[in-house]
Amino acid sequence: MVIKQCKICDLCLNNSFIPTPPIGNLNSRIMIVVDSKNKKNIAAIESAMYVAGFNDTEYYLTYLVKCRSKKPLIDYYRIKCKQWLDIEKRLPFNIVMLFGSNTYNAYFNYQPKHFYSKAIDKIIMDNNKFILTAYSPTVTYYESKYNEFSKIFERVDTLYRDLYDANHHDNLYRLSKFQSRL
Asked: Tell me, what DSSP letter sits at residue 91?
């Protein structure tokens, strides 16, 4: 995938922005999708994955909106960049983590099988993929939502161990230390 040569919308056509490539390993079993690149959100996810025992070669982190703009992230850019997500969906990931309602709706082509609010903290099977849905990482700024955010990492660790590696790092103890790392 050559995201750096994207010419889908006016942000790239005017050469005002270069799309942000995904982070991680295309051959991993886990794909993580967030709305856009936000340093605090990405740091929260990377820290939580580390605490759950995953290194950056064991997951693929991508963004729904590939370019960072001073313009508001209106649905126009989400819909345009969704073409990249459609390509990424076809890659052989077995576990998909969706953060936020925008990524959830885009992943399911704006016709989700379940309402986003009812999909939180549940595992949905779709085309032989395990889909886990969580609130946007911005909820980690609110202490009351922290536990809900950290649950998805406990679930992905458990799911990964059940499916692939019973000896995967059992680091649930480290998840309790997650909040202090943010």
From this structure: S
